[in-house]
Amino acid sequence: MKVQPYVFFDGRCQEAIDFYRQAVGAEVLMQMAFKDSPEPTMASPEAADKVMHASLRIGETEVSMSDGMCSGNPSFQGFALSVTVPDDAAAERVFTALGEGGKVNMPLTKTFFASSFGMLNDRFGVAWMVMVAA
User: What is the rounded CA–CA span in Å between residue 56 and residue 45?
Assistant: First the structure.
Protein backbone atom coordinates (compact mmCIF):
# COMPACT_ATOMS: atom_id res chain seq x y z
CA MET A 1 0.00 0.00 0.00
CA LYS A 2 1.18 3.51 -0.81
CA VAL A 3 -0.25 6.79 0.48
CA GLN A 4 0.66 10.02 -1.27
CA PRO A 5 -0.65 13.58 -1.11
CA TYR A 6 -2.98 14.93 -3.79
CA VAL A 7 -3.31 18.72 -3.55
CA PHE A 8 -5.99 20.81 -5.33
CA PHE A 9 -5.08 24.40 -6.18
CA ASP A 10 -8.43 25.57 -7.62
CA GLY A 11 -6.97 27.39 -10.61
CA ARG A 12 -3.38 28.10 -9.47
CA CYS A 13 -1.83 24.70 -10.12
CA GLN A 14 0.58 25.75 -12.89
CA GLU A 15 1.80 28.58 -10.69
CA ALA A 16 2.29 26.07 -7.85
CA ILE A 17 4.18 23.66 -10.10
CA ASP A 18 6.54 26.42 -11.23
CA PHE A 19 7.02 27.57 -7.62
CA TYR A 20 7.79 24.07 -6.27
CA ARG A 21 10.22 23.42 -9.12
CA GLN A 22 12.18 26.48 -8.05
CA ALA A 23 11.72 26.22 -4.27
CA VAL A 24 12.33 22.51 -3.64
CA GLY A 25 13.62 21.19 -6.96
CA ALA A 26 10.39 19.39 -7.82
CA GLU A 27 10.56 17.32 -10.99
CA VAL A 28 7.44 17.13 -13.17
CA LEU A 29 6.81 13.47 -13.93
CA MET A 30 3.50 13.96 -15.74
CA GLN A 31 1.15 16.83 -16.51
CA MET A 32 -2.16 16.93 -18.37
CA ALA A 33 -4.55 19.80 -19.05
CA PHE A 34 -8.32 19.37 -19.04
CA LYS A 35 -8.36 19.93 -22.81
CA ASP A 36 -6.15 16.84 -23.22
CA SER A 37 -8.70 14.54 -21.59
CA PRO A 38 -10.33 11.91 -23.82
CA GLU A 39 -13.57 12.78 -21.97
CA PRO A 40 -14.60 16.21 -23.37
CA THR A 41 -17.06 16.97 -20.57
CA MET A 42 -14.37 16.93 -17.86
CA ALA A 43 -14.29 20.73 -17.53
CA SER A 44 -15.76 23.97 -18.79
CA PRO A 45 -14.21 25.71 -21.81
CA GLU A 46 -12.74 28.33 -19.46
CA ALA A 47 -10.80 25.58 -17.66
CA ALA A 48 -9.47 23.89 -20.80
CA ASP A 49 -5.87 24.99 -20.21
CA LYS A 50 -5.95 24.33 -16.45
CA VAL A 51 -4.15 21.36 -14.92
CA MET A 52 -6.33 18.28 -14.73
CA HIS A 53 -3.55 16.18 -13.21
CA ALA A 54 0.13 16.56 -12.51
CA SER A 55 2.59 14.35 -10.71
CA LEU A 56 5.74 15.84 -9.19
CA ARG A 57 8.66 14.18 -7.47
CA ILE A 58 9.95 16.14 -4.51
CA GLY A 59 12.96 14.34 -3.11
CA GLU A 60 11.85 10.73 -2.74
CA THR A 61 8.13 11.51 -2.66
CA GLU A 62 5.55 11.78 -5.40
CA VAL A 63 2.99 14.55 -4.95
CA SER A 64 -0.06 14.75 -7.21
CA MET A 65 -1.84 18.00 -7.88
CA SER A 66 -4.63 19.52 -9.92
CA ASP A 67 -6.65 22.67 -10.45
CA GLY A 68 -9.68 20.63 -9.38
CA MET A 69 -12.92 22.50 -9.93
CA CYS A 70 -11.09 25.79 -10.68
CA SER A 71 -13.32 27.67 -8.26
CA GLY A 72 -10.55 30.02 -7.16
CA ASN A 73 -11.08 29.15 -3.49
CA PRO A 74 -8.41 26.66 -2.42
CA SER A 75 -8.67 25.59 1.20
CA PHE A 76 -5.80 23.74 2.82
CA GLN A 77 -6.75 22.80 6.36
CA GLY A 78 -6.01 19.93 8.69
CA PHE A 79 -2.75 18.73 7.13
CA ALA A 80 0.83 19.76 6.44
CA LEU A 81 3.50 18.46 4.11
CA SER A 82 6.63 17.55 6.05
CA VAL A 83 10.09 17.81 4.51
CA THR A 84 13.12 16.21 6.13
CA VAL A 85 16.43 17.59 4.86
CA PRO A 86 20.00 16.39 5.57
CA ASP A 87 21.40 19.40 7.44
CA ASP A 88 20.69 22.83 8.93
CA ALA A 89 21.91 24.71 5.85
CA ALA A 90 19.47 22.77 3.65
CA ALA A 91 16.69 23.43 6.16
CA GLU A 92 17.36 27.18 6.00
CA ARG A 93 17.41 27.14 2.19
CA VAL A 94 14.19 25.10 1.81
CA PHE A 95 12.38 26.99 4.58
CA THR A 96 13.27 30.36 3.05
CA ALA A 97 12.29 29.25 -0.46
CA LEU A 98 8.93 27.78 0.60
CA GLY A 99 8.19 30.80 2.77
CA GLU A 100 8.64 33.33 -0.03
CA GLY A 101 5.30 35.13 -0.24
CA GLY A 102 3.87 32.93 2.50
CA LYS A 103 3.54 33.10 6.27
CA VAL A 104 5.95 31.74 8.89
CA ASN A 105 4.07 30.07 11.74
CA MET A 106 7.16 28.92 13.65
CA PRO A 107 10.62 30.12 12.64
CA LEU A 108 13.35 27.51 12.17
CA THR A 109 14.75 26.64 15.57
CA LYS A 110 16.49 23.84 17.44
CA THR A 111 14.09 21.53 19.23
CA PHE A 112 14.43 18.39 21.35
CA PHE A 113 13.64 16.30 18.25
CA ALA A 114 15.43 18.22 15.47
CA SER A 115 18.51 20.37 15.02
CA SER A 116 16.24 22.61 12.87
CA PHE A 117 12.45 22.65 12.76
CA GLY A 118 10.03 25.26 11.44
CA MET A 119 6.46 25.58 10.17
CA LEU A 120 5.00 27.84 7.50
CA ASN A 121 2.22 28.26 4.98
CA ASP A 122 3.48 28.86 1.46
CA ARG A 123 2.03 31.50 -0.88
CA PHE A 124 -0.81 29.12 -1.80
CA GLY A 125 -1.75 28.40 1.81
CA VAL A 126 -0.27 24.88 1.92
CA ALA A 127 1.21 24.14 5.36
CA TRP A 128 4.78 22.83 5.46
CA MET A 129 7.02 21.55 8.23
CA VAL A 130 10.76 21.60 7.51
CA MET A 131 13.12 19.64 9.72
CA VAL A 132 16.50 18.05 10.18
CA ALA A 133 16.17 14.90 12.23
CA ALA A 134 18.36 15.01 15.37
Answer: 26
Domain count, the chain: 2
Q: Count other Cβ atoms within 10 Å, centred on residue 5.
A: 13
Same domain, 60 and 111: no
Helix (H, G, I), strand (E, B) or coil at 77: coil
Q: Is 50 helix (H, G, I), strand (E, B) or coil?
A: coil
Inside any domain, residue 35: yes
More confident of the two residues 47 and 125: 125
* CA 111/CA 121 separation, integer angstroms: 20
Give the C-alpha separation, 112 to 53, whole Å. Answer: 39
Give the residue numbers spanning the domain of 113: 81-133
d(CA 71, CA 8) in angstroms, rounded, equals 10
- pLDDT, one tens digit per residue, over 70-88 is 887 788 999 999 999 999 9
- pTM more than 0.85: yes
